[in-house]
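job 3f2a | input accepted
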Amino acid sequence: MFIKVSKSIIVNILSNCVNFVEKKDNSQITSHIYLEANDKVIIKATDKEFGIEYIDNSSEIIEKGKATINGKKFNDIIKSLNDDFIEIKVENNMATISQNHSVYKLPTFEANEFPEFPNTKNFQKIEFNSIEFIESLKEVLPVIDSNNPKYELNGALLDIKEDKLNIVATDTKRLALYQIEQTSQKEFQIIIPKKSISEIRKLFLDDFEIYIDEINLVIKNKNISFFTQLINGKFPDYNRIIPNNFKEIIKIDKFNLLKAIKRINIMSDEIKFTIKDSKLLLESITGESFEAKTDMEINSNLENFTFAVNSKFILDFLNVVNEENILLCLNEENIPFSLKSNNLQTIIMPLSI
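job 3f2a | predicted structure (353 res):
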């Protein structure tokens, strides 16, 4: 195999591919990136749990073939070279990467042993609004747990119904629900791992297609194909957690609330909120002698309604929504409350005070 590639193109491909390779054991073929030169250049990376494939039509193919190159070394070498064309040649189980006076040689593995990617021939295609789907993943991502022993909580649920799609995440202290109106001929649920959602958000910005079977989810556009294994488990019944109605719904200026919380965060991440005299009073909760207080005007008839919360939960919500105003939805003082903005709703468990 012998190809000539532009650094400006391959450096972006490799910077994404390196996130998919096995990083702990360089003896595994999954620590390598796969290259194939035929009528186009195909570049793949996978740790078997998830993977990515790029199609590059711009590179010059001098000699056809296929090979693997250690992903981290490959990426580091390409980044170090000048912004010019780079030659990659593979022969006698060695890859040579060269540019002008710089030459690197790396051993290759048997390319035919590189893991196969899922074939979507027998997969079910799901029809989504691509842009809104990516937005939904962005808005529930902060709520997804990372190392929960209940493995199903380390991902987001896609609950596909006849008339809508619910994207749900929880870390047991809060729950996020994003709803998209859409139609489906079949109702089903899948759970996408958190690390895969992080990569999907970076890779796909416009129109793409989604395919699923019982094991994998595949997302494709013209040049990129991504797959991830789904989480096998039963997600909690989130409908039991979401209140059907609220006694009080208060519209609050998002940016004023952000500024108020950040002032209190100087002293404490745990904040007590009190609604009184058409004001929202924020106070730090600490075991120390220092304290912080601030308030903001709101439109509410509640008097002496108090709750406390870890401010990170509110900040995570405020930082992903785009609207100028959000809704604070309340029932009783010591039960979960809700924050809403358009299609996103977050239910938060208050702290005991």
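job 3f2a | The two ends are 68 Å apart (CA to CA).
job 3f2a | closed
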